Amino acid sequence: MERTEHRADATPFLPARRDLRALRAAAAACRGCHLHAPATQTVFGAGLKRSRVMMVGEMPGDREDLAGHPFVGPAGRELDKALAATGIDRRDVYITNVVKHFKFEERGKRRIHQTPKRFEMDACLPWLRAELAAVGPEVLVLLGATAGKALIGPSFKLGAVRGRPVASDLAALVTATAHPSAILRAPDDESRRAARRDFTSDLGAVAAFLAR
Are the C-beta atoms of 72 and 47 separated by less than 8 Å? Predict the structure, then answer.
């Protein structure tokens, strides 16, 4: 069974037509890896085809799994604050995740996030690649190490490239910053303010690129 899970991926579930509407509809029935079974639903990307910016996170969390939309929980609120602070129109951003199903461990009544493994990321990559092709963003923002490893490669290290252009042909500008959930995990108010400031600064560079 373990070997079967490692070989599976989403490719057979991709539709012949690859616009966002068709992709979203097809992804709802994806059974490309085992993560679909415990999850409430597929959480596909949100935004418009004409979006100039595409942001990629790790995977949906508990709130997103229940709502069926990405970045609607506390991390999403941090992202919205940073977008507003830098003048990036949220309507100009397509937001998605590497993995489209919530991976979790149950602890009592709580569902605790678990980091996806490489084979789970690889299984879901056909959806992300199709989203990239459909949107064709000017700017691709990698939110955290998981997104970087999925799209740039396993040697990706966030600390080495954070806030700077990343060598890639996926968009005119590819850059990386922390996942906004890192702000929430900061141990105290001072650390949280610093994390929020750094995150906003990184998105400020994106805003400057868009304003050129």
Answer: no
